[in-house]
Design a protein that fits this description.
The complex is a heterodimer of chains A (78) and B (190).
Chain A (H helix, E strand, L loop, with lengths): L7 H7 L1 H4 L9 H18 L3 H20 L2 H5 L2
Chain B lengths: L2 H4 L4 H10 L1 H27 L2 H17 L10 H18 L1 H10 L15 H13 L2 H11 L5 H8 L3 H24 L3
The chains are: A mainly alpha (78), B mainly alpha (190).
Chain lengths: 78, 190
């Protein structure tokens, strides 16, 4: 079990058993990654663009200004 | 493009197909995932000391690589580029305090690495994993890069974003620490 010395070659030889080993990948990574990427794409597709968000904010601001132009008392009229 | 068809493409051609988008791009990326997952999970498992964590991080690596594919200029191989992303994400995972605390609690816990039966010396492998797991993270990382991934020191320096002399020094110290720990483990009475 003991290597003959502490040289780099000796260490490299010792690691051969790790280099030759293969792990059983327990998860279907291709499927998992594929699903995650599709979700990201869908989210991007649903996400409003900056331009549309800005226009939405501008419309809301215009509505607020328009509402502010009317008398506050008007809102209290039942 | 069918899964069968993409399997004939090399990595560069697959990357180009992914960039083209659509279902073909999706199939091409799945092929890249399958093609590189064995070494990637093994690398992460040796560095992180846990297969479950390795598979988690491998998934993150592939998603991050897909998101960053536009920045991949092909100056290095796709594998080298993927490894550099994996190295950063593995480091981040270790840096996370809660994860680190959990690792420390798990020190000496049973290994969760599942090796494919190949007739190799399983005991020798487990000893090495135990010794690696006992080393500080930077030492384990550099030993795996040098002696499992077989990178040259200059490539390691680039992967770790450190100078050449710093990489050499870290490797020297890592080897010393490894031998010290290895001697303790193998000399320990049963």
């Amino acid at each position: 079990m003991h290597p003959p010395d502490r040289s780099e070659d000796s260490l490299h030889g010792l690691f051969a058993t790790l280099r030759s080993a293969a792990l059983v990948v327990t998860r279907d990574l291709a499927h998992a990654v594929d699903e995650e990427i599709r979700e990201i794409r869908e989210e991007r597709g649903r996400a409003p663009s900056l331009r549309s968000m800005l226009s939405s904010v501008l419309v809301q601001l215009a509505n607020l200004v328009s509402a502010g132009a009317s008398s506050p008392e008007d809102d209290d009229v039942e | 493009m069918s899964p069968h068809r993409v399997s004939f493409l090399d990595d560069d051609e697959l990357v180009e197909t992914v960039r083209g988008g659509g279902e073909e791009g999706q199939e091409a990326y799945k092929e890249l995932v399958k093609r590189h997952q064995a070494w990637l999970v093994r690398y992460l498992a040796y560095v992180l000391g846990s297969q479950a964590e390795a598979e988690d991080v491998a998934q993150e690596v592939y998603v991050k690589a897909w998101q960053k594919l536009a920045t991949f200029r092909g100056e290095s191989s796709f594998q080298t580029w993927l490894r550099s992303i994996a190295t950063r994400l593995a480091y981040n995972r270790r840096r996370d305090r809660s994860t680190r605390a959990r690792y420390e609690e798990e020190a000496g816990a049973e290994l969760d690495l599942v090796f494919r039966p190949d007739g190799g010396d399983v005991d020798a492998r487990e000893v090495l994993i135990v010794v690696l797991s006992a080393l500080p993270y930077p030492y384990r990382e550099i030993l795996v890069l040098r002696h499992v991934e077989e990178l040259e020191v200059s490539e390691i320096a680039r992967a770790l974003d450190v100078g050449l002399s710093a990489a050499k020094m870290r490797l020297k110290r890592a080897r010393e620490a490894f031998w010290d720990r290895y001697t303790e483990v193998t000399d320990a009475p049963p």
